[in-house]
Amino acid sequence: MAVLTPTRPDAPTPVAASGRACVVAFWVVAVTVPLAFLGVFFAWPVAVMIAKGFVVDGQLDLGGFADVFSRPRTWRIIGLTLAQATLGTVLSVLLGVPGAYVLYRHSFRGRSLVRAFVTVPFVLPTVVVGVAFRSLLVEGGPLGFLHLDGTFAAIVAALVFFNYAVVVRAVGGLWERLDPRAEQAARALGASPWRAFRTVTLPALTPAIASAASLAFLFCATAFGTVLVLGGLRFGTIETEIWIQTTQFLDLRAAAVLSVVQLVVVAGTLIVAGRARSRRERALGLTLPAASVRPLRRRRPAGMPPGDGHALTLVATAVTAGVVLLLALPLVNLVVRSLRTADGWGVDHYIALGTTEGGLTVTVWQATLNSLRVALDATVLALVVGGLVALVVSRRPRRTVGRRAVAGLDALFMLPLGVSAVTVGFGFLLSMHHPLGLPVDLRTSPLLVPIAQAVVAVPLVVRVVLPVLRAIDPRLREAAATLGAAPGRVLRTVDLSIAARSLGLAVGFAFAASLGEFGATSFLARPDRPTLPVVIFRLIGRPGPESYGMALAASVVLAVLTAGIVAACERLRAPGAGGEW
């Protein structure tokens, strides 16, 4: 007689056990692949580059620190880096907060267009920004009478031009979702508009402002192409000094010491940015959903005392309008100057882009096609790696150890934004000959340039996708699991489907970053296959108005390509999937 043994209702079935195994395998791959990518193509080249400066005859020699820090030039460069980063950050915040208020708390015709326009400078290649400001400030330019060409003030202005959008988008994204009833209650109790803003709204915005300021400081301190074009050898940053020491003086010890200094500055900035970002996310958890917050209207709420409530709005609007005009000035002037020829006006410089005048090895159009191909490969790599990182970092482990591990992984993948691209590029040349003992020389591979560009683009993908994933209500996952969905299906139907909303913007930022990358590419691009930023820099360095005119025209081409791609990708994103930038 057969005996039937009852089974426990909660006992896992073979199918469920197989599904859990697949999910565990997926998470292992999601962690391992990005770490392997970062280790091989970032940590290893940087370590090799730094080791070249600190290892002499097989022995560790840290005497380079004393040697480099005893040079007055080193302290001058560090001082210039901190000064321009601090001043650029302060001005970006002071101008960006009013812009965030106007563009994210008020509704007016053309607001989306203005929002898109103020983002354009951030996605422009740094070389283009430098050329645009140079054409504006040189003798004979619209602002040439100010005699600011090659000055510290010109560099700071270009950095503010580049980072204004960082503050506007970061602060505006939180301001748009703040519950306006707290400020309205303060006004109803008799507080003036300024006091209500200072005591209620500003404290709520502090996490976003701190996060934006940290990022702006990071971008200002590590600026390369813009400072190199505008400052030359007179003004520089640690980043440009690493390039000078490596390419002109062949002093790898000084470059290694400066790379360590920059790494320390970047690590400190990332710690501040990470803490500010976590506070910002907690603040977002206390705000109303974006759809429930209506733009401010001119009608005064009932019970609110009369006053100069519109004064702050008028001031913010005037400041924002002035900044938008100033943002447009370098771009418009770049286009105008590219059409000026020795005989008047015309498209001669654009016609010359199809030739190899100016000592080029390829035409500008060939370099453009090469840049597009490289950027496409880099974007695919960045989306895969950055998407996996964002998915892992978006988890909220219950244990403290798990939370710290997730925060550490997030900070680890932000490092490529701050570590010198010159260090990475030169490190590639030193380490990719039989990397890790493998019988292959990657220095001759056409994949080397897109890999280097993907290293820089991965943090941008993470910063765009991660806030979208972290905004997912955990109850959605719980509801899907309650309805019988396996863990793998929950991941696919909830997390991945919602993350796809930010895919368009992630593609745009990654493609733009790859298209305009110059630091590492200047070392890795082969002479017969240069990218467009490399060609522009070569044209700037050649004497003669023809070469300079071609550089202006090529910069317009690169600016239009970059801005057009980002604008098209941003239109493809779903509403509410804005990401952090």
Descriptive notes:
The protein folds into two domains: 24-58 and 344-581, MetI-like fold, CATH 1.10.3720; 65-293, MetI-like (MetI-like fold). Helices cover 71% and strands 1% of the residues. The protein contains 24 helices and four strands. It has helices at 14-54, 63-69, 72-105, 111-123, 126-137, 152-175, 181-188, 193-221, 225-231, 238-247, 252-285, 309-338, 348-351, 364-393, 400-412, 415-418, 421-431, 448-470, 474-482, 487-499, 503-516, 521-524, 532-540, 545-572; strands at 55-56, 59-60, 340-341, 344-345. The strands form two sheets. The chain has a two-stranded antiparallel ribbon. Strands 3-4 form a two-stranded antiparallel ribbon. α3 runs parallel beside α6 (152-175), α5 crosses α12 (309-338) and α8 runs antiparallel to α11. The longest helix is centred in the first third of the chain and has 41 residues, at 14-54. Belongs to the binding-protein-dependent transport system permease family.
Superfamily at the CATH H level of the largest domain?
MetI-like
Instruction: Spell the H/E element sequence.
Output: HEEHHHHHHHHHHHEEHHHHHHHHHHHH
User: What form results from the Cα inertia axes?
Assistant: globular
- Indicate the CATH topology of the largest domain: MetI-like fold
> Do you know the CATH architecture of the largest domain?
Orthogonal Bundle
Identify low-pLDDT runs: 286-308
**Largest beta sheet, briefly?**
2 strands, antiparallel
* Spatial separation of the terminal alpha carbons: 70 Å
Q: What is the number of independent domains? A: 2
Count up the helices. Answer: 24
Task: Supply the helix-strand structural class.
Answer: mainly alpha
* Annotation, overall tally of beta strands: 4
Keywords: Cell inner membrane, Cell membrane, Membrane, Transmembrane, Transmembrane helix, Transport
Main location: membrane
Protein name: Iron ABC transporter permease
Subcellular location: Cell inner membrane; Cell membrane
